[in-house]
């Protein structure tokens, strides 16, 4: 059974006609399969990371599809509240914690767990009396040098949390900068940082890459919480292994349609700037997708798409609403044929590499103009 999944905020937008043939098919069974891989590798609980609108797949839809997950991780209180307002009752941790005292109030009212990254967040909490205690995770900077406190400075915050009757320290966490390299050496310094202190609570250290490799298992116990993210969506978190090699299944298949075909003569150019030139007479297909939909403008000539089982190549720059594809070798391709941009036949990690980016960005930058179509299996 296939149905359109609404990810829009207003009823008026969700009910508008959507006849443009550009959509992302989301396979929820594959999402659950990928979560089970992560869960099987985790020594303790596994919180599914569904921040940034579920990496472009739909935050509420992802939470509903993963209804039996141990919990969810989001970036901000706004995202957590979207889950609560949709009736999601599973545990939710907010990875950036509270931005202000009002968000401490929301966390208390809605049973949200907050990450504490700096002392000022605790000062904000002290500005009000909470109706219910809030569970907190303390973030340690183990080498990313982005957010979190240094390990040798953590005890002062632990003491402040312990002294506050309205807070409960649940976990100490960190985020690895180099887990994607998939080697012991890449994580050695970070693991040493986390081993340098005696922590009063279990740890949450493993992201997608560390979950799959088990390289941080020395830090984990049955009370630990892993945080699988990109692996859930069928993209490899490791530099040296593909999604298929890891047993991950494709969740999003981005498709559109051929809307125009014309012949081209040898020597003629295609697209803005004319940076693709036909070497011989042939045919060009125009496909209804562009950077206005989130398809990457930096996709170079030769980037593959799949049409009627044929692997074809971009010819010319990506426009806002259209791409042009060389179909000279395939006479059977016609107007109306379906086109896969990435998914079951075209590896999203391949497209990302050609665009000098990562699958995370490709998923997240899809615009609301791209309909999400839900399917099971």
Automatic annotation (TrEMBL):
Q: Does this UniProt record's set of keywords contain Isomerase?
A: yes
Q: Per UniProt, which keywords does this protein have? A: Isomerase, Pyridoxal phosphate
Signal sequence segment: none
Q: In which pathway does it act?
A: Amino-acid biosynthesis; D-alanine biosynthesis; D-alanine from L-alanine: step 1/1
The record, for SMART domains, names: Ala_racemase_C
Job of this protein? Catalyzes the interconversion of L-alanine and D-alanine. May also act on other amino acids.
The protein in question is named Alanine racemase
Taxonomic source organism: Bacterioplanoides pacificum
């Amino acid at each position: 059974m296939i149905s359109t999944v609404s990810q829009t905020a207003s009823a008026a937008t969700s009910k508008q006609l959507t006849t443009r043939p550009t959509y992302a098919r989301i396979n929820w069974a594959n999402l659950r399969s990928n979560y089970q891989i992560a869960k099987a590798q985790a020594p303790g609980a596994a919180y599914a990371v569904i921040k940034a609108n579920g990496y472009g797949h739909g935050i509420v839809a992802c939470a509903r599809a993963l209804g039996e997950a141990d919990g969810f991780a989001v970036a901000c209180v706004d995202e957590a509240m979207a889950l609560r307002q949709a009736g999601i009752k599973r545990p939710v941790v907010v990875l950036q914690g509270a931005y202000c005292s009002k968000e401490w109030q929301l966390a208390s009212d809605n049973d949200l767990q907050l990450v504490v990254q700096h002392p000022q967040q605790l000062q904000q909490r002290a500005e009000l009396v909470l109706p219910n205690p809030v569970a907190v995770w303390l973030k340690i900077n183990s080498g990313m040098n982005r957010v979190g406190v240094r390990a040798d400075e953590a005890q002062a915050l632990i003491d402040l949390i312990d002294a506050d009757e309205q807070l409960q320290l649940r976990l100490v966490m960190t985020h690895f900068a180099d887990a994607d390299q998939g080697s012991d050496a890449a994580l050695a310094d970070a693991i040493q940082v986390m081993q340098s202190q005696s922590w009063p609570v279990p740890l949450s250290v493993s992201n997608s890459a560390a979950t799959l490799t088990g390289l941080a298992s020395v830090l984990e116990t049955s009370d630990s919480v892993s945080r699988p993210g990109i692996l859930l969506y069928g993209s490899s978190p490791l530099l040296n292994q593909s999604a298929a090699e890891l047993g991950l299944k494709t969740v999003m298949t981005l498709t559109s349609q051929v809307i125009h075909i014309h012949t081209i003569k040898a020597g003629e150019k295609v697209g803005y700037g004319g940076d693709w030139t036909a070497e011989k007479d042939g045919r060009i297909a125009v496909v209804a997708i562009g950077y206005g939909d989130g398809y990457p403008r930096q996709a170079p000539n030769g980037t593959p798409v799949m049409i009627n089982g044929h692997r074809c190549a971009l010819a010319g720059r990506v426009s806002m609403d259209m791409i042009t594809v060389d179909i000279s070798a395939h006479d059977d391709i016609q107007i109306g044929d379906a086109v896969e941009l990435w998914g079951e036949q075209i590896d999203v990690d391949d497209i990302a590499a050609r665009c000098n980016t990562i699958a995370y960005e490709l998923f997240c930058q899809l615009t609301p103009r791209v309909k999400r179509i839900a399917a099971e299996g």
